[in-house]
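On clarity, I found the account of how folds are encoded harder to follow than it need be. Since the whole study asks how a given chain folds, the encoding of that fold should be made plain. For illustration, here is how one protein appears when written out as sequence plus structure tokens:
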Amino acid sequence: MPELPEVETVANGVHERVRGARVRSVTIGPHKEPLKSPRSHIEETLTGARIERVRRVGKTVVMDVSKHDRTPAQMTVHLGMTGRLLVSQAEVPVPPHTHLTLHLHDGREVRFVDPRRFGRVGIVDEGTEYEGPGAEPLTIAERDFAALFKGRKTPIKSALLNQSLLHGVGNIYADESLFRAGIRPKRHAGRLTRAELGKLHGSLQTVLRHAIELGGSSVSDYVDADGVRGFFQLEHRVYSRTGQPCRDCGAPVTRIVLGGRSTHFCKTCQK
């Protein structure tokens, strides 16, 4: 599932390409699963609208749109496991499993493609600002970050994945951040020292920002708004490297299942 860096990359790419464009018409596919709002409401809200901004909130792409006679609204896109949000010329063949197409006045199209149909598209009520459930990991202060885990008995890996605490952090970047902070994923979040939490705060933000610079991690179906794969997977230290030598000490990377999620770490480098 695309995580914060991948969703940020997609949102930024779409924003750069379609900001200020107007939606001429909307085509919605036959499947109901991807739709969080009635198709008539999606069509009515987006047809004729101007795209003001495209941004990320947590793991959700948010498209702000406006019409001269209506309160500004927002379209939300959750990519699910295999979702893609692509900007294409109209003559480019439409990929299979395209569930929503915004036909722009300049002849281009914004297409939401999702083979497994776990992604979701919806409209936020007009005048309502979409907000994620937890804190933003890229901007949260170190003190506030440490306070999130105070007294928590859950493993720190599970706490990082708790979207009500931090929105947008997923399996890849939790593993990579814990490795760089030297913290084992099974340690209780509430027992970490302030110094350890400070180091984790820094490593998490560094990893996320670097992953955004490299266009995210393409370990499955993820591509950006132009259909291009990311490169951060080439810099993974532990994620999905089970049995391979640690890039710092040479010990084999260990894989366990924690909270139902594959978890990768180095027994030597992480304490």
Remarks:
- The chain has six helices and ten strands.
- The domain at 142-265 is CATH 1.10.8.50 (Helicase, Ruva Protein; domain 3).
